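How a chain folds remains the central question behind the approach discussed here. No coordinates are needed to read the tokens, only the vocabulary itself. For completeness, the protein is quoted in full, as a sequence line and a line of structure tokens:
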Amino acid sequence: MFEQSSLLDFHYNMVIHLFLIVAAASSTNGLTLFPNLHPRETVTTPGLTKSGFTAIFLDTFTGTVGTLPSSSNWLFDLGTSYPGGPAKWGNAESEIYTNASTNIQITRQNTLTITPRLSRGVWTSARIETVRSDFAAAAGSQLYVEARIKLGNAAASQQQGIWPAFWALGSSFRGNYTNWPAASEWDFLEAVNGGSTMYSTIHCGVAPGGPCNEYNGIGSGGVAFSRGAFHTVGFLVDRSMCGAGSTSTWVNETLNWYLDGTKVFTVSGQQVGDEKTWTALAHNGHFLLLNVAVGGNWPGAPNSKTIDGLTVAMEIDYVGVWKPT
């Protein structure tokens, strides 16, 4: 989800950001500005209890309808770059990220929606990251991350440039914003241009080239992912074989991706082949991110057929992190 680029003045971003919040409030493309007038619906969420695991982070988005996700759990990324970071989020993206309810809000269904909006020729969307950046598996243990996600089912011809993602960055990136890919990145779910394919990738080491073949990363090549329905997207850091007294080493540790409970991709320390790089990937803390980008080096720019609104949004039922009990 991230790639190095040139720098952009952060203060300029904030001026644009404030302007767009005003513009979004005046042109909502049909989104209700008073969602609390609607009755709350109750949805039963499966899978929050994991046998043998205890939740160390869990957000089921049960706040007041129409409000933002909890500031105790989430930080907002605003504008078009981190302070002092690469311009256009390092990916030549088109959107400006805001914290406006037109772009992100809790719904009547106890879910969170992130919705790209087009107003007066300018795209806005939302990107959030966990306050916590210490999600890591200890030696001899595991870490499991999971979210239940639904992607918008507008026709692919209407989703050119739409790029939803659920992912993570290494904790050393926070406050630095220039040490990618060395800080490491886990991409749990990425999908582009309305396609029915989930891409899972790691980024690490140096760029270009390096142990993770940057800028491409090491990826799954994609697995089928139907739109308009919820799916569980899981990720397991497995260091269980390297506990005290074990003869196993970092090369035996693995990163594992799951879709609806089925393992779809694995990367091992041996495959990465560099211990320092693997330490950043599999041992160090990470923070989680959710966003819907518009445009970028991978999907390409939106075009005249690209639509905004809920049919190109990402809806999240829950996000959780578990450790063995």
Remarks:
- Residues 234 and 240 are 17 Å apart (CA to CA).
- The two ends are 32 Å apart (CA to CA).
